[in-house]
Amino acid sequence: MTPFDNQNKTIHVMERPEPTDPFTEIVGKSSELQQTLRLISRVAPTSSTVLILGETGTGKELVARAIHHHSARKAKPMIKVNCATLPANLIESELFGHERGSFTGAVERRVGKFELAHQSTLFLDEIGEMPLPLQSKLLRALQEKEIERIGSRHPIVVDTRIIAATNRDLEKEVDEGRFRADLFYRLNIFPISMPSLRDRRDDIPLLTTHFIQKLSMRTGRKISSVSNYVLEQIMNYHWPGNIRELEHTLERSILLSDDGILSQIYLPTRWQNGIAPHSGNEFVVKTIEQNERDHILQMLKYCNGRVSGYKGAAKFLGVPPSTLSSKLKRLGIQKGHY
């Protein structure tokens, strides 16, 4: 029996060991996810810079971990920096380090993340939040393969692979002057787009069983199956917070459950009050980028996959073929999608 029984629409939770390989942590069998896994397999053994794109909660850090784990640098730990959580005046010290006495409060020498990630991988999460002044210094470090600690005049050569991630549209950020174009081109060598959960709904039953098993061990509450009602609610909800929201929602529901059957799912109040953004012909909440992606996909299908030419999608969309090709790359649209 599979975890998702199509006849009675009930998820049966089966015990299995916790995954140790980051590839197995990326749960799902949908075509959208398989395309992402193929890209990971292609780039992981190299030292190329990778830019991971996707909405909040889609699992961008899991992708970074999988790339590092399947690289020649896996013997050393991957070093992570969240560019959104550090104050602007501390990011430079965090990345490049500082010498004792280089500024007020610098009571000792500090080794930065670039040095710590020497011959390993540096994961720059939320790269779109990095202040402009630091972007130029990051670009220099990427181009020259060397850094300077604050307060030092001696360059330090580093062999650091960069994986960056963002939920922002960096091309738009470049156009509006909030992100350096040259840094974007340097990071965008091998982009990987993580699909949203609503674009891979076939994976929701597998993810549900995965999280219930994981959360049952963490909370000490044994859940053996999920009711028909809960399954329908999970499948119909639009999951704006993606996989992270699914996990947190399941954890809350497991903690409030009374027996081994998950018979109630605690979705946001607006949904429970009857406002269902993904039911029937009702309004579906989407970003401008999601609408653009859907429209381009529909046009490509209408044009039988033809991008340029008299009957190509570019002509109908009113853009040059080169612009459309750039959009396809930015939105993560592959030939297999249309």
**Helix and strand succession?**
EEHHEHEHEEHEHEEEHHEHEHHEHHHH
Annotation, overall tally of beta strands = 13
Instruction: Return residue spans where pLDDT drops below 50 for at least 5 consecutive residues.
Output: 1-8, 273-283
Beta-strand percentage? 5-15%
Structural class: alpha/beta
The amount of helix comes to: 40-55%
List the total number of helices.
15
Specify the overall morphology: globular
* Main sheet attributes: strand count, strand direction, barrel closure: 5 strands, parallel
What Rg do the Cα atoms give? 23 Å
Mean pLDDT score: 85
Termini separation:
32 Å
Q: Strands across the major sheet, in which order?
A: 4-7-10-3-11
